[in-house]
């Protein structure tokens, strides 16, 4: 346990004691809990957050990686200020949602049509329903370690042993047709399709496995899955909730040059406000048209769907990204590549077996493993990683323990250099260092 963390975060500790009395486990998202207790934030700006004790951190968690332009970027703040004067919730369509959808259509290869909702978990739930409705088949093949939000069907096989429900209270029947296979292993997906005996509706994956270790797909793997789905009349879908508008303007499908039938988005697409989105081929999305008489797929409830504040923030963000894509993405890619390399070098210099995975501006440091999938990632030293993240916090850098970091356009070369330098100091302080 880092004593400097405890000493420096007393107010967060006190808030956590109060939070435990009102929230189960003291948190409102399970990923936000870490030992001994999580930081509580008092404000955020650009690449920085301030905790309840007033301590400033360079933030790499960036609101679950949703904030590619940093905290409260000017285009988003201006758009929100303007929108608040025009209403905060319509419960009706508006020009804003059409404009945001048109921007997304321009950027994302598969997005012939789409539907907005409010969370990623909702988007992935809709995506599964669309795939089953379109194909008339049942089996969903997802990846071991693949995290698609807390909806009932997909909440399976996220953690070891990678083939079980993640929760009590979910019936076995509700997940009976969801199979988990090893990521980056085409043969495993082929076997699962074969075992489904003509019943494979959907092959669904994050092109960069997020919670499963921030592991990018190997280039031929996605092409192989595309061909596999086509051969067997299944749909291929990407969960781009992390990778969308991050690894390229067109997301991972733009980056890898493989177009799925469907994709889920969230995070960046909402510009820091709540948003989920399912996009894909017109033929599939058309099943959700409420005037349809046959094979109607009921997606798109949601009191707050296409909420004008989310639309305004999303539009300001996606438009800014499109206008500046030529400079933003090469810079973010270089920042990510350099950071992964510099952090690994800092650890290697102290004889510590650490490897930083990721793609574009995403990164996650593993101890004792250089994973290609969630099984390998799970074998990494979790205590070392928690110790690393707590030490970084004590040195003014915030990475949520166990989760990828996301570099924003606000992070400076000095910020990134500091991350590598402080990683090296942490490495030097370890007993196993040479
Ligand atoms: C890949 C992926 N899918 C789905 C989700 C769920 O999104 P939400 O938290 O908005 O429900 C997340 C959230 O972190 C995610 O990373």
Outline the secondary-structure elements.
Blueprint: H1 3-8, H2 10-22, E1 41-45, E2 48-51, E3 56-59, H3 62-65, H4 74-84, H5 95-107, E4 113-117, H6 120-135, E5 139-143, E6 178-181, H7 186-195, E7 200-205, E8 208-209, E9 215-216, H8 219-232, E10 235-239, H9 251-256, E11 262-265, E12 276-280, H10 282-285, H11 308-323, H12 325-349, E13 354-357, E14 362-367, H13 374-378, H14 382-394, E15 397-398, E16 405-406, H15 413-429
Parallel strand pairs: 3-15, 5-6, 5-7, 7-10, 10-11
Antiparallel strand pairs: 1-2, 2-3, 4-12, 8-9, 11-12, 13-14, 14-16
Helix pairs in contact: 4-11, 5-11, 7-8, 12-15
Residues 64, 119-121, 124, 147-149, 206, 210, 239, 241-242, 266, 276 line the site of pyridoxal-5'-phosphate (PLP).
Number of strands: 16
How many angstroms does the end-to-end distance come to? 22 Å
Strand residue content: 5-15%
Q: Any idea of the CATH topology of the largest domain? A: Aspartate Aminotransferase, domain 2
Number of domains: 2
In CATH, what is the class of the largest domain? Answer: Alpha Beta
Strand order of the largest sheet: 4-12-11-10-7-5-6
Helix percentage = 25-40%
* Annotated CATH architecture of the largest domain: 3-Layer(aba) Sandwich
Secondary-structure-based class equals alpha/beta
Ions, cofactors and other bound molecules? pyridoxal-5'-phosphate
Overall radius of gyration: 21 Å
The overall pLDDT, averaged over residues, is 97
Determine the number of helices (DSSP H or I, runs of at least 4 residues).
15
Low-confidence stretches: none
| Shape type | globular
Summarize the biggest pleated sheet. Answer: 7 strands, mixed
What is the H level of CATH, i.e. the homologous superfamily of the largest domain? Type I PLP-dependent aspartate aminotransferase-like (Major domain)
């Amino acid at each position: 346990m880092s004593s400097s963390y405890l000493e420096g975060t007393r107010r967060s500790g006190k808030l956590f004691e109060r939070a435990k009395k009102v929230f189960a486990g003291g948190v409102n998202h399970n990923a936000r809990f870490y030992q001994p207790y999580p930081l509580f934030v008092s404000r955020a700006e650009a690449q920085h957050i301030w905790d309840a004790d007033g301590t400033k951190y360079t933030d790499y968690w960036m609101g679950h990686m949703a904030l590619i332009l940093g905290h409260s970027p000017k285009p988003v703040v201006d758009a929100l200020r303007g929108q608040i004067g025009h209403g905060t919730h319509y419960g009706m369509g508006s020009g804003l949602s059409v404009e945001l959808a048109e921007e997304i259509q321009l950027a994302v290869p598969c997005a012939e049509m789409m539907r907005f909702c409010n969370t990623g978990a909702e988007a992935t739930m809709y995506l599964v329903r669309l795939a089953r409705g379109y194909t008339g088949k049942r089996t969903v093949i997802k990846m071991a370690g693949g995290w698609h939000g807390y909806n009932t069907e997909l909440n399976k096989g996220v953690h070891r042993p990678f083939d079980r429900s993640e929760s009590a209270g979910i019936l076995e029947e509700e997940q009976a047709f969801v199979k988990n296979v090893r990521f980056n292993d085409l043969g495993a997906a082929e076997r699962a399709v074969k075992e489904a005996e003509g019943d494979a509706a959907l092959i669904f994956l994050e092109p960069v496995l997020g919670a499963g270790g921030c592991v990018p797909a190997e280039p031929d793997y996605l092409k192989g899955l595309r061909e596999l789905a086509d051969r067997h009349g299944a749909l291929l879908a990407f969960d781009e909730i992390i990778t969308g508008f991050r690894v390229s303007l067109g997301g991972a499908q733009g980056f890898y040059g493989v177009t799925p039938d469907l994709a889920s988005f969230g995070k960046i697409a909402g510009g820091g406000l709540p948003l989920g989105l399912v996009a894909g081929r017109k033929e599939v999305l058309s099943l959700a048209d409420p005037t349809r008489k046959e094979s109607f797929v009921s997606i798109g409830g949601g009191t707050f769907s296409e909420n004008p504040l989310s639309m305004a923030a999303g539009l300001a963000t996606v438009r800014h990204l499109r206008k500046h894509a030529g400079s933003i993405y090469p810079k973010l890619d270089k920042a990510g590549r350099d950071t992964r390399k510099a952090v690994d070098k800092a650890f290697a210099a102290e004889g510590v077996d650490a490897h930083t995975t990721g793609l574009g501006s995403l990164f996650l440091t593993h101890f004792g493993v250089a994973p290609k999938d969630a099984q390998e990632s799970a074998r990494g030293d979790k205590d070392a990683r928690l110790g690393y993240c707590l030490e970084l916090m004590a040195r003014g850098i915030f990475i949520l323990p166990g989760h990828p970091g996301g570099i924003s356009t606000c992070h400076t070369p000095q910020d990134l250099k500091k991350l590598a330098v402080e990683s090296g100091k942490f490495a030097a302080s370890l007993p196993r260092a040479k």
